[in-house]
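User: quick one, sequence for these tokens?
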């Protein structure tokens, strides 16, 4: 069976094109998807009305009344052939966030279970591994403004649970497969609840309703339950936002 070639362009419905860089997640494919989206946005292509990136692909939605789909596909193919997107740099306008997060079992009931499953000698070593990791928002999905964040070191390659957590609160950190989900809404989940932030990721009344953006760089700063509590008064949950290097 012939292996599919990447990047691969496919039509999505009557008004979309999807560029895929891999069949499954890897860091270079995610970088490529983020970079391609940024390039198209920067170029303000005529007829393109929206772009979005997932873990390994980029969606380009267009107005068929303004652009011929085949012409847009050819334009994309020419752009993709002009460089090696697997070596693309991350977008230049990324931000860097430092996010207070509490890993005390009082608000993060599965941190010890996850630390033991990953093979750490104790909770403090696990927290240090998480907070030392250089992470970024890989994509936004599943719920409004909800990020998938990665990648953690290989030691954190834990599978999802067989049983669901009946409910995790807004701002909780779920961990599996070397990634976090930072939950925008209360929900059931098979991801282990290992941390808690005070972030409100979706603020529909705000000019920019999503607090995080794909490609943002971030780190978690460990805080106590007492220090986390007043941060709920801040819609950002105490996060400090600057420019990424």
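Assistant:
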């Amino acid at each position: 069976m012939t292996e599919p070639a990447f990047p691969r362009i496919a039509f999505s419905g009557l008004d979309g094109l999807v560029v895929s860089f891999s069949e499954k997640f890897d860091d270079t494919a995610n970088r490529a998807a983020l970079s391609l989206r940024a390039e198209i946005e920067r170029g303000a292509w005529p007829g393109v009305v929206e772009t979005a990136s997932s873990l390994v692909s980029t969606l380009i939605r267009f107005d068929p009344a303004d652009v011929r789909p085949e012409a847009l596909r050819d334009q994309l193919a020419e752009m993709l052939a002009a460089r090696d997107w697997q070596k693309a740099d991350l977008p230049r306008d990324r931000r860097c966030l430092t996010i207070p997060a509490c890993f005390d079992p009082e608000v993060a009931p599965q941190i010890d279970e996850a630390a033991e499953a990953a093979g750490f000698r104790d909770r403090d070593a696990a927290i240090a591994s998480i907070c030392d990791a250089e992470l970024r928002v890989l994509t936004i999905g599943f719920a409004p403004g909800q990020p998938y964040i990665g990648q953690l070191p290989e030691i954190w390659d834990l599978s999802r649970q067989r049983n669901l957590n009946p409910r995790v609160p807004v701002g909780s950190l779920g961990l599996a497969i070397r990634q976090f989900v930072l939950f925008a809404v209360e929900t059931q989940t098979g991801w282990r609840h290992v941390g808690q932030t005070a972030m409100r990721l979706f603020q529909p009344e705000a000019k920019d309703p999503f607090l995080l953006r794909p490609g943002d760089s971030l780190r978690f700063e460990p805080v106590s339950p007492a220090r986390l509590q007043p941060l709920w008064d801040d819609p950002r949950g105490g996060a400090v936002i600057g420019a990424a290097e």
